[in-house]
Predict the structure.
Amino acid sequence: MIRAARGDAIDRHPVWFMRQAGRSLPEYRKVREGITMLDSCVQPELAAEITLQPIRRLDVDAAVLFSDIVVPLFLAGVDVEIAPGVGPVINKPIRSAADVAELPDLDPAALAPVSEAISLIVEELGPKPLIGFAGAPFTLASYLVEGQPSRDHLTTKALMFSDPDTWHALLAWAARVSTTFLRVQGEAGASALQLFDSWVGTLSLPVYDEYVAPHSTDVLNGVADLGLPRIHFGTKTSELLVAMRACGADVIGVDDRTPLSVAIKRLGSDIPVQGNIDPAMLFTPWPMLQAHVDEILRAGRAAPGHIVNLGHGVPPTADPDVLARIVEYVHQVPVQL
Amino acid sequence: MIRAARGDAIDRHPVWFMRQAGRSLPEYRKVREGITMLDSCVQPELAAEITLQPIRRLDVDAAVLFSDIVVPLFLAGVDVEIAPGVGPVINKPIRSAADVAELPDLDPAALAPVSEAISLIVEELGPKPLIGFAGAPFTLASYLVEGQPSRDHLTTKALMFSDPDTWHALLAWAARVSTTFLRVQGEAGASALQLFDSWVGTLSLPVYDEYVAPHSTDVLNGVADLGLPRIHFGTKTSELLVAMRACGADVIGVDDRTPLSVAIKRLGSDIPVQGNIDPAMLFTPWPMLQAHVDEILRAGRAAPGHIVNLGHGVPPTADPDVLARIVEYVHQVPVQL
């Protein structure tokens, strides 16, 4: 997986799944019984166990830390909870310069539970890589401003447009949080880092370039010295792929709304990509899913490296056996040089 | 507005707003007290009153029928309600061939309340046009399959991929509903027709072309003989604009995620466009909003016709005075030939 991320020669196609550690696995649902999402992220043994569950079951080529985009906000002291069926809820949304000024800076020491989890994971993983991740500044900010997941991010964009100084101060804070969160993961033993800008597809390219890209660039630059591949991903980002790369990514994650061949061409066919099996295809008969995977493998050959993944997270209703079958199949398909 | 939709010379820029009749107006909130959304759509006097409220207040160049995408489903006899704060809820989602076979066809006579509302509206409007609208087949189907608004349309896409026969039967049914709904509106006196594919931005272009476009084409072709401008619009459709045009649209609506100049260029600069003020800009100081409107007017000159609108519906929290100011301003900006 790391070789593909660097564009080096590989002897088999690497594959992992965003949200592979999570609700689709019965063993996950069992260990999560009676414990909140955030608590499960900050208990090192539990977070390690959940991270490792899909490794034991699926033969994927990388683990991804079981965590959440808002975990560093939580550990910084922001009043956030993850409400079941809703998502992250910020009890006092950030809407003014004064609100931003009061945001607590994230002390790397507060991330000790994350470092401890990673130590436990890396010990069991052996040579298999662990991917660390963080939410990108825009996505963190949109949670902080909206107070909860939003369809159109109207309040976020209104703040951005009407009070750019406050906006940039907020994104600078969020960039420091993201950077710290990623650095701690890298220093604790993660082998690659993924920056998730989950909601950025709500923006046009000129708006992204002006209000977001400088801060995502700060995050990616801020971890460059670790020498780990930096993956940059968001959904609905077909128009933003080139700009997201320009922030300093080593690998671009492609969602399932953009055909992989189109994304690679748009990116210039000179950067490794990750993606983009349509999660809806997990619910189709195997021959159809196999043909879809074949098409993605074929398209991926136009890039210098290709990490097979879904175009979005594993749906909670996905059948783990289908994920296992994809891994088995992808590993069997010959790598054409 | 109709001249702009046809690409004919105009003497001032036409402007209206998607969802101009609705929750942003206090007079709307007043008349809706104690009455459900669907009931208010099928009481002709009330639907007419609500449709006309923004005409009296905003000086917009067109009325748009106060209705909802699911109204024709409701009048066809589908068990649907609009749950406050949620949106349309289908009590028995459509997931199988048998479910599709049981869907009741829409008798044009069942749309009498809509025709009556339009007669009342057109009488008061005089020469000002009324825009009729319908949900496009994909959007209707996604409500029917998911049972409620969805972020990723996973169930819809799973049905589409795994059971294409059922999918195409469902979309053919939905296309008949959309066509009937639009035809009744045109025959009752609407001067233009807008086909809303609200959720289609969830699809990649190849998926759209294979599973959706033929049915949207049937709808647009099915009303072509009425001779009314056909506007085609969806959000997050930057990759789909050309394909949506190819369905038979006379005007393409552009959402605020795509700069209007980019959309016009992508479309070939030879079809009128509608859009695309960012609704978030309604919450910024006037000089910033004015500059944004100026930029959109300037970009619109590259198309043979441009109808000023938002890139999405009026947010419930918008200030109607801001909308009125936009109309006043747009009407003052000279038309450059």
